Each structure stands twice: as C-alpha cells, then as structure tokens.
C-alpha cells in the first residue's frame, strides 16, 4: 500500500490532446504527474511505434493496419489536428522526451493479440537495452496478456511490471510473475478487499471521476492512470 498515489497520464494528456502523440506527452510531463503511459505496436519493418490500436483508422487521417505499413508510410499520416499536426512517435523518441524530464516515469503497454507475437516484447526490450535503461526504475511494463508479462520477466527482469485485468474476467489466480495488478477502477472498488490483501503494487486505470480519484488516494493505490491529469492534481491538492 502506497503512502502517496502517483498520477499517470493515460496515453499522455489524452483528455485534451490527441492520444499517444508528442504533444499529449509533452503537455502531461509539464505537470506535476508521476509519469505517463503509452501503448506500442510494431510496424511492417519492425519499428516500435506508439499507438493504441492495431489500425490507424481511429487516430489518424489514414486507414490500414499498423503491421502492414512501414515507418516511412506511417510518417505520412497526421495523428494530430489540422492546426497542430502530429506524426507517429517511435518508442525511442518518447524515451528521449521522458529523459528530458528527470524523475518522470514511463509505463509501456504492449497490445495483444499482435500479428508479431513475442517479437513485440523482444523489440521493446531491445529499445531499452540499447539505451542502457533495462534496469532503470523509471520504466515499467504493462499488459493484459500473461504471456507478455512472462516474456518481460525473462527479457527485463529488473523492471517493474503490472498485469492488467479485464474488467469482466473475474479475479486472477496469481500475479503471473508481475510486480503488481492493474485493475480497472470499477474492479478495484468492487473487489477492494481482495486487492488490499495482495502483497504487491497497484496500478488502477482509467480514473477520470473526482470521487474515484479520492478513493485511490484514500486506499493506498500506488499509481492511477487518468485522461485528466490536471483534474487529478486538483483532487490531490484538495485532499492534502
């Protein structure tokens, strides 16, 4: 149980800026948050890019599957707005940004099912290893997929990981080697006694209502993900 709940900006400052873009992350990191969360997928040519969906349809002005496009092709798309165009980010570029804000955390979520399977976790590990960040406590790995968590444990054993939980899948049998659980706010509240008894860290998503933010603060949640980090900061200040 944490003494203080850290605020994690979900996909950057997702409530006001296009998700998983440089702008969304930069605006979040300017705030007094603990860090940011991102999603990653692989391109056709094996680059680790920051995007939630398996396709670009919802978040860009293009269409198609991320895994069927090269980085060069993805770079032609706009993931921002007409007034503030944003190109797709490499995980490497996001790490550059994180390192320019000392002390900020980055939680990296791998999305499954992925057409690349284990290559996704292997590629994330390669990015962090190449930068000598494979034991840096600022970086955490998260996934709904227990097999992905197991791969992270083998590839990056020094980094913290959270097993995300599907809201309607029931309570887990074990941590599957993760450092902690990542329930939704609804599940965290409904099954508060279960999670309070588990000797592990906690990452709760996606917390956008003040009453739920207050609950996280009062129940020792280590990290809470939110689309509205400024609102969360206001709640934290009011509770102090």
From TrEMBL:
The cross-references to Pfam families, in alphabetical order and at most eight, read: GDPD
Record domain GP-PDE: where: 5-236
Q: Could you tell me the Gene Ontology terms of the biological process aspect for this record?
A: lipid metabolic process
Against SUPFAM superfamilies, the record matches this protein to: PLC-like phosphodiesterases
Q: Name one GO molecular function term.
A: phosphoric diester hydrolase activity
Q: Which domain of life is it from?
A: Bacteria
**InterPro entries attached here?**
GP_PDE_dom, PLC-like_Pdiesterase_TIM-brl
Which spans are transmembrane here? none
Q: Which PANTHER family match?
A: GLYCEROPHOSPHODIESTER PHOSPHODIESTERASE, CYTOPLASMIC, GLYCEROPHOSPHORYL DIESTER PHOSPHODIESTERASE
Q: What is this protein called?
A: Glycerophosphodiester phosphodiesterase
High-level lineage: Bacteria, Bacillati, Actinomycetota, Actinomycetes, Mycobacteriales
């Amino acid at each position: 149980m944490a003494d203080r709940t850290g605020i994690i900006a979900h996909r950057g400052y997702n409530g006001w800026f296009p998700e998983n873009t440089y702008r969304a992350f930069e605006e979040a990191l300017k705030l007094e948050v603990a860090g940011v969360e991102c999603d990653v997928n692989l391109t056709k040519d094996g680059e680790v890019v920051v995007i939630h969906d398996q396709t670009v349809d919802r978040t860009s002005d293009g269409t198609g599957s991320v895994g069927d496009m090269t980085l060069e092709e993805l770079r032609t798309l706009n993931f921002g707005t007409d007034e503030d165009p944003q190109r797709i980010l490499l995980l490497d570029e996001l790490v550059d940004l994180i390192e320019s804000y000392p002390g900020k955390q980055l939680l990296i979520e791998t999305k499954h099912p992925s057409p690349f399977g284990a290559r996704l976790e292997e590629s994330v590990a390669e990015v962090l290893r190449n930068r000598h960040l494979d034991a840096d406590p600022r970086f955490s790995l998260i996934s709904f997929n227990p097999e992905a968590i197991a791969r992270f444990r083998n590839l990056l054993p020094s980094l913290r990981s959270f097993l995300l939980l599907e809201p309607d899948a029931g309570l887990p049998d074990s941590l599957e080697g993760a450092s902690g659980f990542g329930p939704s706010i609804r599940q965290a509240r409904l099954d508060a006694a279960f999670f309070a008894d588990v000797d592990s860290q906690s990452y709760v998503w996606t917390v956008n209502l003040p009453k739920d933010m207050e609950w996280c603060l009062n129940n020792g949640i280590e990290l809470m993900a939110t689309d509205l980090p400024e609102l969360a900061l206001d709640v934290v200040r009011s509770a102090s």
